[in-house]
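Table S2 (continued). Query chain:
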Amino acid sequence: MFVRVVNINCKSGMEDELRRLGRDVLVPINKEAGCVDVYFLEPNTDDNNPNFGVVSIWANKETLINMKKSEKYIALLQSLAPFTESFTDSLYIYK
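Corresponding output:
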């Protein structure tokens, strides 16, 4: 199993739009691509935290790579760009 962890630093004031894209577009793209499970994590506003997170679990790396190459995913990244300062993308092995 592979676990992908993405941290997204949101631009100030853009939280609602990023939240909508995460829930309504990003999660379904991952599920349609065949991920085992996906979690969209929202920031804790009490701590003035601008970071959203995505944790997705994949049975194999090839399925993840194919999703990242898909037209839907590439279009999503372009849609997210105006709302994000930066992001990190890490892949872990879960045995």
